Amino acid sequence: MNTSNVLKNVWLAGTAAIALGAAGAVSAETVIRIAHPNVPDHPMGQGFEYFKELVEARSDGEFRVQIFDSSKFGDFDSVVQGLQTNTLQMGSASTPNLSPFSDDFLIFDMPFLIPDYESADLITDGPIGKSAAQALESSDIMGLGYIEIGFRHLFNNQTAIESLSDTDGLKIRSTPSKAHIQTLESFGVNPTPVAWSEVYTALQQETVDGVDIDLNLAWFNNFHEVTDNLTLVGSLYSPHLVMLSKPFYDSLGPADQVMVLEAFTEMKLYQRNLIRTNEERILEQMAEEGVEIVELTDSEREAWVEAAQPVYDAFGDEVGRDLIESARQTIEASQ
Asked: How far are the Cα atoms of 42, 126, 210, 263, 284 from residue 221, in angstroms, in the given order?
């Protein structure tokens, strides 16, 4: 979809609604336009639908929520510009995309740093996640908080990966993140950046042998149809920051500001719960579809963790060694 046309239509629709309200034909309503990159059935899509239900019900119809799923609003730059100009009121972005605002977001690119969902909550909801989100404020964007994608695992259509030696030479789709690429290289695979919209076709045509992705994205994008093997690695935890246009927020009265913030908090917990509770069901369904699932032994997993340590040597200074140590201490203190 042409982003400029989307923005033009959004602007015209908003202008028309205000004009009609001023003329007395209909009551003016406040529109919250939301952009996110996932399909509607994915927990992210379901989460924003839940937010829509909450806001429209609690505002007695004075607020209307319009959702642009599947990157229909445009790419990351379009989302940022939309938030800054208030042609978009809310958007979601993965943390690697946000690193130009702050190197603190790179903490999520460090392999095996976050071992489980409880630890993830400590980082995203605690001082580390909040400090990173605050870096957007100087750009007229509020970081509301984090929803999630999940932990990355290895899918492939060539062989069952039970140890590091089984990965040799496999072409695995990677994101453009340099740390992600080096993490995959440390596993012995050949990282191959592929645009997200082209991943299914690349797997189907065997342009790549596999993909490093979480269970929910794999399932809702039907990657189980074009990959036969899954190894549960859990190398990286992938969150998304939900952002709010500061000009929009500042235009709201205090009660409406509270309403929006409370609805987001409820949506965040709802979305995370969907991601996590889906995983057991997804594994069962993938097994029924014929996907061979490998769970690494404790000793084998340690070999993967050890292999990824050079990533810390390469990116530790950029991320911040103090920040990495703070994250480790936060997690260890809870265990």
From this structure: 9, 31, 14, 28, 17
